[in-house]
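To illustrate the input format used throughout this study, we show a single complete record. The first block contains the structure-token representation of the backbone; no residue identities are included at this stage. The design step must infer an amino acid for every position from geometry alone.
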């Protein structure tokens, strides 16, 4: 089914459902379309709002789901250091702390600084603290 917004020659706007694009064209060609308000048969198509099938529940692509899965896998055994992430990452990088896998939160500007300092970090494609993870 396709929904069209239609406009008549008297500037009345209304919506109508059609089985397909050709169904609309057929009705229009046969002058079978009329305004629901003034019954004018001078009808114009305004814009199309096709019925898009819903993606999976979160609206994410399979590629995204794969990336999330891989990232979750890499977090196994890693420590969540929360907002201490930048400090911890630096401490490990500069040898002040024992090397260990960590993850956490940081401001985007801080993350850029870490990368500039040559610290190997990567953004997570999901929120590790979210309850449903
Ligand atoms: Zn009308």
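Output of the design step:
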């Amino acid at each position: 089914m396709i929904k069209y917004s239609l406009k008549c020659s008297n500037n009345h706007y209304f919506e109508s459902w059609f089985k397909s694009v050709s169904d609309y064209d057929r009705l229009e060609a046969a002058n079978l379309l009329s305004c629901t308000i003034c019954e004018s048969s001078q009808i114009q198509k305004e814009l199309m709002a096709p019925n898009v099938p819903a993606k999976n529940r979160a609206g994410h692509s399979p590629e995204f789901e794969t990336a999330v899965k891989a990232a979750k896998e890499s977090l196994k055994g890693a420590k969540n250091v929360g907002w201490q992430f930048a400090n911890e990452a630096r401490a490990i990088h500069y040898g002040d702390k024992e090397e260990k896998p960590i993850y956490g939160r940081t401001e985007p500007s801080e993350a850029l600084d870490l990368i500039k300092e040559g610290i190997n970090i990567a953004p997570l494609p999901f929120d590790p603290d979210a309850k449903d993870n």
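Structural context for interpreting the output: The two ends are 36 Å apart (CA to CA). DSSP finds four helices and five strands in the chain.
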